[in-house]
């Protein structure tokens, strides 16, 4: 049975990549310290450097919606559905039905 593949958190990857960017230690030293292949550290470093400008971008592409913005349309739909049920129930009680045009 082969080795189990290790999974690293995003936070860990960022920490290692930042240390590589600082250049205080060589890739070989970092690889030895964290038990990771130097190529993996280089890849994380490249990813960090290529995505860094997006962190400071004034145009937020993926704007985070507030809880109210997410729930408001849902509550509106619930209200519409309740009204529809109420109307149908009332008409059933009266014995009439709505004619759709």
How would you summarize what this structure contains?
With 101 residues, this protein is mostly helical.
Structure description:
The chain is mainly α and 101 residues long. 66% of the residues lie in helices and 0% in strands. The chain has four helices and no strands. Helix 1 packs across helix 3. The longest helix is centred in the C-terminal third of the chain and has 28 residues. The chain starts with 9 loop residues before the first helix and ends in a 7-residue tail after the last helix. The relative contact order is 0.07.
Helix content: 55-70%
Sheet with the most strands? none
Average pLDDT rating: 86
Overall spatial form: elongated
Please state the structural category.
mainly alpha
Poorly predicted runs of 5 or more residues: none
Key terms for this structure?
mainly alpha; 101 residues; elongated; 0% strand
